[in-house]
Structures are given as C-alpha cells and as structure tokens.
Write a structure and sequence with these properties.
Layout: H1 2-6, H2 20-30, H3 37-60, H4 63-75, H5 86-110, H6 115-137, H7 144-154, H8 157-160, H9 162-165, H10 174-180, H11 185-208, H12 214-222, H13 228-251, H14 258-274, H15 286-297
Length: 304
C-alpha cells in the first residue's frame, strides 16, 4: 500500500491527510481473511482517495473550481479540469485513475458491466461535498434533516462498501446487491451510523477547543428550546437506535452471502474501534499505535 501511494503523483502534495497506514489498518479490522486480499486493498485505496477528495473540497479548491471537478465526475471526463491549478489536476487524476482501475477489476470479477452504478455513486459522493462547500460559501446553515440527508452520502459508505463487495469472489447480481447495497436498509443504516460516529467524535474534539460541532448547531437551530446537552443526548440516542437496527438487519435471513454481510457490518464496527480514543484516523494516538504495531508489525510468537 505504501509503495502504491509513493509511486503516484499524489504523494508530492501536502494539503491532505496522509493516513494510508491507518486506512489499511481499518481494512484489516473489517476483513482479515487471506482470500479477501483484493477487497481489503481496494477498501484502503478508496479511503486514501476519499481523504484526498475530502480535504480538496474542504480546504483547497474555490467553489467554482469544485463545481468544475464535480461536473467532470458527472460527465466522467478528465479533460474538463485542464484549466484548473496543478494540485487539483493531480488530485483529480489520482482519483480518476484509481476509480477506473478498480472498476476494471470489478468488471472482470463480476463478468458484467457495472460502471454505471460505480459512476453514479462517485457522483453522489462528490455532490455531497459540493453541497457542503456551497453551504459554507453562502453562510447557509442547513436544517438538521438537510444536513443528515447530505451527510449520509458524504460518509463515503456509498463508495467504501460497493467496490470491495464486488471483489469478494461472490457473483452479486442486482437482486442480491439490492439487499446489501443501495437501496437496502443495511446500507442506509451503515451510512447514518458512520456519520454519527464521526460527528460525535468531532464534537468531543471541538468542545475541548471551545467550538461547537456542526451537527449540534443544526439540531439546536431546529429545536431552539433544546440545550447543548439535550442535543448531544439526541444524537447519541440516534446512534444507539441506528446500531440496534443495523444489528437486526445483519441477523435477518436473506440471500446475501455471509462474507458480504459481515464486510458491510464490520465497516461500522471497525470505525467505532478506530474512534474509541478519539479520531484515530486524523490523529494516531498511543493506544491506536500500539494496536497497529501489534497487528501489522510485531511478529506473532509461535510456540515450538
């Protein structure tokens, strides 16, 4: 994974979080079996691409530049970004090449053309980032429900779940894919759970610096009689209910291969583990470093 990252032009840029080790560790917590190596690597690569795009939309591009990037994704046409700054072109090309390479792998694995589904989900993902950028540029504070709907897409689950699922060695026709992916209840709950876990962690981090997390602000705006404590309890209760429903969906009988259900289910479990001591992706704390070394670096003792 490190060789792949260092061999790309994106390694030259410094505006994004370089957390490829953390992302691969997340992949290992989700799916560790040797036979699922391709899904594990695909998941880690997608996380790296998502981090680049997230930070590009958050900190690097102007609104007009971001609109051009989103339009290039909608048309799936890299030539539309030719007039943009070099760092944005490098970031976009990194995304575009990785997405196309993984799409080719998926087509070979599934024996059918699924590029339309893949492109639609990339578009949905980046449109959610553009929506957030437009809110910031216009100083618009969305309603709680507006934010929650958009945040499901910006969680990245529409991308992180789909590609690896299709590379697990299981043929997944649309009638099976619909039960584990969009428009399934399990996908919807996974998106919501990941967003709430992330937002609650952001709240704890920002509270230490005297700031207020966006999701709390949106809830209080819509419920002016609510205190910050009430808003926080509401979000925590929403997360609790989402996790309960997600467990029920996982245990429900259906025709989805068990390895695929476990993968989707474990994405949220893995993120909860990474965020147990704070944001374990953006900031690698001692507890998480110990876990990474134990699993990825330290040799496993073998008794003679």
């Amino acid at each position: 994974m490190c060789r792949w990252w260092r061999g790309s032009e994106i390694a030259q840029l410094n505006f994004y979080r370089k957390r490829h080790v953390e992302f691969y560790f997340w992949a290992v917590t989700i799916i560790f079996e040797p036979e699922f190596c391709r899904s594990r690597v695909a998941f880690a690569k997608l996380c790296i691409v998502a981090a680049v795009l997230d930070d590009l939309y958050d900190t690097r591009g102007t609104l007009d530049e971001l609109k051009t990037v989103s339009e290039a994704v909608r048309r799936w046409n890299a030539s539309l970004i030719d007039e943009l700054p070099d760092n944005i072109k490098i970031a976009f090309q990194f995304f575009f090449n990785t997405a196309n390479e993984l799409a080719i792998d998926v087509i070979k694995e599934q024996g059918r053309d699924v590029t339309a589904i893949l492109k639609d989900d990339w578009q949905r993902y980046l449109e959610s980032y553009l929506q957030e950028a437009e809110w910031i540029a216009t100083a618009h504070v969305p309603t709680f429900n507006e934010y929650r709907k958009n945040a499901r897409a910006s969680s990245g689950m529409c991308i992180l779940n789909l590609f690896p699922l299709l590379l697990m060695g299981q043929l997944l026709p649309n009638n099976i894919l619909d039960q584990i992916y969009s428009p399934s209840k399990m996908q919807e709950l996974s998106e919501l759970t990941i967003r709430l876990v992330d937002d609650l962690t952001d709240f704890e981090d920002e509270k230490k610096h005297g700031e207020i997390a966006s999701i709390i602000e949106y809830y209080i705006k819509e419920n002016p009689d609510s205190t910050m404590e009430n808003a926080l309890n509401h979000i925590k209760e929403s997360l609790h209910l989402s996790l309960e429903e997600l467990n029920r969906e996982f245990l429900k009988e259906d025709s989805v291969p068990l390895c695929c259900k476990k993968f989707t289910f474990n994405i949220t479990r893995g993120l909860q583990f990474l965020f147990r001591y704070g944001d374990g992706i953006s900031v690698s704390n001692k507890e998480l470093k110990d876990q990474k070394f134990s699993i990825l670096v330290d040799p496993v003792p073998i008794e003679e």
